[in-house]
Amino acid sequence: MAVGIGDDCAVLEPTPGTRLVVTTDLLLEDVHFRRRWAGPADIGWKSLAVNLSDIAAMGGQPRWVLVALACPPGTTAADADAFYTAALGLADEHGVALVGGDTSLSPAGWLVNVTLLGEAVTPLLRAGARAGDVIAVTGDLGASAAGLAVLEHPEMASRLDAAARDEVSRRHLRPAARVKEGRWLAAAGGVTAMIDLSDGLTKDLGHVLEESGGGAEVRVDHLPVAAATRAAAAALGADALAWATGGGEDYELLLTCAATQWPGLADGLARATGTRLTAIGRVVAGPPGLRLVDAAGAVVPATPGFEHFAAGRAR
To answer: Is there a single domain that holds both residue 162 and residue 284?
Structure first.
């Protein structure tokens, strides 16, 4: 960075031999979060984390961020300070410098827009998956949707063990971006396509299939679902599988790779980062499309992913 905050524009100096990767996300109150359970610090954290996840999906290193924040009347200086403290604290963890942004008054509700710039030697794309490739995911699925359900229904969540309740709530309010894992996977080679799981497994895998061509078969009994997520489903009378396939906002990485590369990638990622990589299915020949099947091979109905323009579905 040649010139940071203080001039009309920041002046950036990308590292020679890398490509610039850029992402932006808009978070709106009562669409992406509700203030009755998400405090300013939670909003600040998440607004950066979702952008870090996009850079992670490209196998990139996040470098510079611009943050625009609009708040309604009544917002205090302490609220704004909590927002920026959390966002910039997470930025510091990943070596990201704040290089600009803006603040404004909002006529109704909080509005956050973050633009994040990073670098990648060879960015990983959604296109590239081929028939026979293994489909795999980092970490576990459904925890964020479980956390949302717990936050929306505190009267039912009281049936849940406090440790499990806190775990799934944290996974929704303060997701972790898999930046270290994305960089390792890009450097290791063998990954043919990658995406972060923001809108749910079925929807985001669908994006990969659209860009790559072909279809996919996923074994629902192979999906990694944490014990806390299963406990939340039992306590709330919900379906943990539906959360895992369509809940969204897990911000895990979904990748495809040649079958011959799979063992080395799974073992190597676990050794390098401590993160589990789970094979959940295969890319198959034919028109784009996804089949979810159980252990017996019977088709399981797919749960739609999160739709950002659906009324009344705040995240």
So the answer is: yes
